[in-house]
Design brief:
heterodimer; A: about 325 residues; alpha/beta; Rossmann fold; Alpha-Beta Plaits; 2 domains; six-stranded mixed β-sheet; four-stranded antiparallel β-sheet; 14 strands; about 30% strand; B: about 425 residues; mainly alpha; abc type-2 transporter like fold; elongated; binds adenosine-5'-diphosphate; binds magnesium ion
Amino acid sequence: MPNILEVQNLVKNYGDFQAVKGVSFNIEEGEIFSLLGPNGAGKTTTISMLSTLYTPTSGDAAIGGHSVTKDPMAVRGVIGVVPQDLALYEDLTARENLIFWGQMYNLSGKALNSRVDEVLEQIGLTDKAKNRVKTFSGGMKRRVNIGVGLLHKPRLLFMDEPTVGIDPQSRRAILDTVKDLNKQGMTLLYTTHYMEEAEELSNRVGIIDHGELIALGTQKELTQQVGQAETLILHIGENDDSEALAVTLKTIQGVQQAEAVDHEVSIVCAEAEDVLAAVVTKANDRGIKIRSIDIREPNLEAVFLHLTGRALRD
Amino acid sequence: MLKTFLIGIKDLRLAFRDRAALILMLAAPFVLTLGLGLVTGRFSGNNNSGLSDIPVIIVNLDNDQMGDALTDVFTSEELADLMEPVLGSDPEAARQLIDEDQAAAVVIIPKGFTRSIIPQENNFATPSDPVKIEVYANPSRRTSAGIVKSIVDEFLSRVEEGRVSGSVSIFQLMLSGRITPGQAQAAGIAMTEQLQTNTTDSDLAIKLNSSTAAGEEVDFDILAYLAPGMALMFLMYTVSYGGRSILAEKTQGTLPRLLVSPTSSSQILGGKVFGIFLTGAAQMLILIGASSLFFQLKWGDPIGVIVLVLAAVFGATGWGMFITALARTPAQVASIGTAVMLIFGILGGSFISLDQMPPAIQTFSRITPNSWALDGFTTLGLGGTLTNLSTPIAALLAMGISLFLVSVALFGKKNLVQK
Ligand SMILES: Nc1ncnc2c1ncn2[C@@H]1O[C@H](COP(=O)(O)OP(=O)(O)O)[C@@H](O)[C@H]1O
Ligand SMILES: [Mg+2]
C-alpha cells in the first residue's frame, strides 16, 4: 500500500520549550495508526502541525502528496480532523452544526442534506438531530464532534483522544465507529493514552514520549522488543507506600522493572511464576497487604515501561 | 464569498439564540425608551425633557396678520414646553445673540410678509415676489434649530395651502381665536389631503431659506429622539458582543476547526465581520419596527431610515472590530465594550441632548457613531429624506472603513492562528 502520510523530522518549539523533537513516521493508505503516549507527550502538537493549524518549527510532512507547509489548502481537502477538545456551536442543533461544517467543507444542497442524514445515522443521533448540542451528554457531544470530521469523507482522518472523559458505553460506540470507518476504506491517525485502545484498534503503533517517537511498529513487533517479559500488577491498600515497595521489588532477581502508580505496582519480569513468591514475601515484610495480583502477557504497557522506566497511565 | 456569507448567517442565528444577548440587544433599549418616555411625560402629553424650552428669538418686522400668526404659534400654549420664545426687534442684535450661543435660532419675519401672501383689498393684482422668512440657526444646536425650522416650515406650508386654494380661512379663523394653532394644524392636514392633487412644487411661492424639506407634522415627539438614542447605544453592545465572539470561537475551538477546513482566514474574518453587521442591522430594524408599532413613533422616510441604519451599523461595526483588536480575551472585549457603550451613549447624546454640552465635548462626540446617526435620525424625524443625510452617512462610512483598516493591522493573522 502507498503512504498517504509521510512525516519527516517534525519539530515544534513553544518559545524555549521543545514540544515535538524531530518526529518521523509514515502511514499507509487503509491502516489505523495509533500515536500512544502519556499526557504532554506531544500528540496534539503533532496533529496540529499535520492538520496545518500550526506551522512546524522545522521539518515537513506530505499528505496525499501535498506538503503541509507549502500547500496547506490542498492538505485540508484530504484530511478530516476530530479535535481533542469539543469544537461545536452549543446553541446550534446537532443537525445545524453538521450543516454548517459541511458548508465549510464545500458541500451544499441535496448532497449536503443527505450526507448529514448519513452521518447522523452513523453517530446514532438521528433522533436527537433537532436538539441543541448544549442539551447533550458528554458522550453525545463527542459523537457530534466526530461526525463533523466525517462529513466530507476524508481520505485520512485525525482523531485526537476522542474517548477522553466519557462513559464506557459511549467509548465502546466510538471505538466501533472507528473500526467501521476503517472497514469502509478510511485511513486513520488515532491518538490515545489508553494502551487498550491502541491495542484494539491499530495496525501499527507509534509510542511517543517527551516529544520523541521512542518505538514504532505492529503490536507484535513492539512486544518482541521487551522479549518474553510478562507484567505483574499488584493492587495494594490505599495507605500503603507504593513507591517504596517498587524500590524494594526492583532488588528481586528476575525483576526487570518495577513502577508505582497510585495503589498499584507494575513489575516487568521474564516469568511471573519465578518472582511471585519473592514479591509477596517482600510486601509482607513491609507490612503491605496485597489485595490482588494480575498477570499480563507482554503488552504495550510493558513496552512503555521497558522503554521509559515509567508507567503509561497517569 | 459564499462562506463569508454563511459564517455571517451562522453568527446572526447564534446571537438571536443567546438569551442574555437578546435582553441587551432588544429588551433593554426598548424598556429604557419606554421608561424615559414615561419620565419625560411622553405618555402623559407633558413635554418636559432634555429637548424642551428651546430658546428662540422672534423678530417680527411684518407686524401684520401673518407675521403675528407665526409669532402666536411660537408663543402658543401648546409649544410652551418646547419653546422659550423671546421677542426681538433688531435682526442684527438677534443674530449677534446666536453667534454668542445665547439661543438656538432667530426667526426673522420680514416687512411685507403678510402683504406678499394675502392680496390687499386695494390691490387685486397677483401678489408681488414672495418675501422670505429667515431662520438664522445656531450651528452648535443643530437639533433645536432643526425643530425651529420645521415649525416655521410647517407654518409656511399651511399658509401655502391656504394661498393655493385661494383661502386663508384657517389662519383667519386662528387669528380671530376661533380655532387654536393645534386645530389649525389638523385643519391644515385635512386641507393638504384635499389639495394634494392640484398642488405641485412650482406652485409654492414661499420658500424657506433653508434646505429643510416641507415638514408633515411639527409635533416634536421626544421619543423620536429617545428611541434612536437608546437603539444606537445598545448597538454598541451588539458590535462588541460580535467582536467577543471572534475571541470566544478561538477559546471554544471552533476557530481552529475552521482554520483546518478548506476556508481561508480572510473568509473567516470577513464572515465574522459580516455577522456583526447583520446582527446590528437586525437589532436596529427590529427596534425601529417595534417602536413604530407600540409607540406609534414616526421615523420618517423609510429609505432614508434603512440607509442610515446600515451606515450606522457599519460605523459601529468598525468600533466592535477595534475593541476586539485591542483585547486579548473575550472577557476583556466584554468589559471594554460595556465601557465604550456607556461613554458613547452619553457622549453621543443618547441620554441628554448634545445641545446642552460645551462645544469641546460636542466636537469630541463626533468620534461616536451615535452622534452622527442621531443627527440623521433627527433630520428624518423632522421630515428630511435621504438627500439630507449625506453628511452623517459619509461620516459613518469613513469611520467604519478607517477603524476596520486599523483593526486588521492590529489584529493581523497572528491573532487568528496561535503561534
Ligand atoms: N500553546 C502552547 N504553548 C506552550 N506549551 C504548550 C502549548 N501547547 C502544548 N504545550 C506543551 O507542549 C507539550 C505537549 O503538549 P501536547 O501536544 O498537548 O501533548 P499531548 O497532546 O500528548 O497531551 C506539553 O508539555 C504542553 O504543556
Ligand atoms: Mg492532547
